[in-house]
Amino acid sequence: MLRLENIKYSRNSKEIIKGVTINFEDNKITSIIGSNGVGKSTLAYIIMGLSDYKPNDGKIYLDDKDITDFSITERARLGISLLWQEPARFEGLTVKDYLSLGGKIKLDVIKDALNLVRLNPDVYLSRYVDKKLSGGERKRVEIASCILLKPKFLIMDEPDSGIDLMSLDMIVDIMKYLKDNGTGVIVITHREEIATHSDYSYLICDGKVLKSGVCSDIIDYYRSTCDLCDNVNAPKENLI
After folding, report:
1. Is 114 exposed, middle or buried (CB count within 10 Å of its CB: 0-12, 13-18, 19+)?
2. What pLDDT score does 229 carry?
3. Who is most buried in 54, 96, 98, 110, counting CB within 10 A?
4. Strand 200-205, strand 208-213: pairing
5. Strand-strand pairing, 200-205 and 184-189
6. Within a domain: 159
């Protein structure tokens, strides 16, 4: 289990995350739902251990081990990975080279991963991971790399970003594939089409957990309350 315990984070004297406690279970899909600007991506960066996102207070545990002070590299070695909202470009590096992780992964396995993200290996293995690939193509390559890593936990920050609406079912299929193959999936999204496939959901607003439970209940609450709120970042409800 990956656990956030009373996490607080401020930047430039502004409090962004305000005492968040969340449990992410192994081999489960957990969604973090909320409108833009409520702190969802900040939580992702805190979990991953980015240098500018060390919490001011609170603890992060992986299987009861305190990893709060661990670097991004140390967390990656423990099996925590992040699917970036905006995938990187690598000039001069082919898709095959990028996905082979220094030659450690067999070509057939790489092809299987590309097929899962609906990229034809015969077309894409020799392509370069640069500006000639569209944002959606680079996002698919990035997802394939996460599949090949076989992480213990994968944080998917807005996985549909840069992906056309027709491919949302691919994202869902990937989430289920990862879960079935031993990965705990943490999906950060504002799309019901993605969140509805999670085992458990947390609704974030104004840097706090507003509500948690099965996804259908959270979505119903979001529709009836958050969509009607005059200020979605600071609802007039009692935050929990």
Report:
1. buried
2. 63
3. 110
4. antiparallel
5. unpaired
6. yes
